[in-house]
From TrEMBL:
UniProt entry keywords in alphabetical sequence: Membrane, Methyltransferase, Transferase, Transmembrane, Transmembrane helix
Keyword Transmembrane applies: yes
Protein name: Methyltransferase like 12
Membership in a protein family: Belongs to the methyltransferase superfamily.
């Protein structure tokens, strides 16, 4: 009996231990599953965060690259294109400015005023200050030559602002420019009040071969024309010398040559003095021709004998945009 009782108790203990072990295992299994789920969740979360960070970094890198490309490549290209277009419009391209073909193309079918360097209202006062002493010496209409007039309204403004009658001759080597000036005269004759006796003449001619008699003009105005000639890297100085000789030949005693330029006086004054000193010359020069763009011809020019000039003077003029330009002038002191 006792042995049987002992066996039953052992079996009871055994049956009690087994359920307890199963519960522990179940708890352990559940804990392990929970740990795995947590671990997987953490891994997934970390992966998502890493992916997001990588994507954000990649986007930031792409944006940075685009910004760099825009600033380093696109913006300069756009700026260069804009500058080129601006210079094309304002006539600042080197070499082209000295070519007849460029100006023919530039002026073809144009119906809008174009002012190079300065607007008339920015230059009128110093011009009239130079013209005043000449006008005071005669009661006759002042003979004025606008050399290389282009599409500028400068001569019209001179005529309206001058107290004395002016006979203004506009010269350009492009017929379209003169046709434009003729239209402007017709358009403005009703609007603009000029001194009685004032008149304009239009002449198509090259500035280095002007078809006028010696001493024909009291005033010669050159607004950027010499600057255009000097753009010719081969013949620029020669052409400018010829033009200077022609202009000074045309100045009447007491007359003045007025030149507007953007070139600094340190350079321009030396050039002007040099051009005057070269009073005679003869050498071949290539000029553009409608039929043959490489037509060669000999050009000669010579200042009148006993010519007496004052020294060159200049005045600095600041434009509305803040740029500096210069008015140069010289007087024929010959009596």
């Amino acid at each position: 009996m006792r042995n049987r009782k002992i066996r039953k108790e052992k079996e009871r203990e055994k049956n009690t231990v087994v359920p307890a072990s199963a519960a522990v295992l179940a708890v352990v299994a559940a804990a392990s599953t929970a740990a795995v789920v947590v671990a997987v969740t953490v891994v997934v979360a970390v992966t998502v965060v890493v992916v997001v960070v990588v994507v954000v970094v990649a986007v930031a890198v792409v944006v940075a690259v685009v910004v760099v490309v825009v600033h380093v490549v696109v913006t300069p290209l756009k700026a260069a294109a804009w500058k080129s277009e601006w210079m094309e419009y304002n006539g600042f391209h080197d070499e082209k400015l000295s070519k007849l073909s460029y100006w023919k193309k530039r002026y073809k079918d144009k119906n809008k005023v174009f002012e190079w360097f300065l607007d008339p209202d920015e230059i009128l006062e110093p011009l009239l200050n130079n013209i005043g002493p000449i006008a005071g010496k005669t009661s006759m209409p002042l003979q004025c030559l606008d050399i290389g007039c282009g599409l500028s309204d400068l001569s019209l403004h001179l005529m309206t602002q001058s107290d004395q009658p002016m006979s203004v001759t506009l010269v350009d080597f492009v017929p379209d420019a003169l046709q434009f000036q003729l239209r402007r005269i017709i358009e403005c004759q009703q609007e603009m009040q000029v001194a009685p006796g004032s008149i304009q003449h239009l002449v198509c001619a090259d500035t280095i071969h002007l078809p006028f008699r010696d001493g024909s003009f009291d005033v010669v105005v050159d607004k950027g024309t010499m600057d255009a000639l000097l753009k010719d890297k081969i013949h620029g100085h020669f052409k400018a010398t010829l033009m200077t000789s022609e202009v000074l030949r045309l100045l009447a005693p007491g007359g003045r040559y007025l030149q507007v330029s953007d070139e600094d006086p340190d350079s321009r004054l030396l050039l002007l003095e040099r051009f005057i000193l070269k009073s005679s010359f003869s050498q071949p020069i290539k000029e553009e021709n409608k039929q043959n763009n490489s037509d060669e011809r000999n050009c000669q020019g010579q200042l009148p004998k006993n010519y007496n000039l004052s020294s060159w003077k200049f005045k600095t003029i600041t434009s509305k945009s803040g740029s500096e330009y210069f008015l140069y002038w010289v007087e024929n002191l010959q009596l």
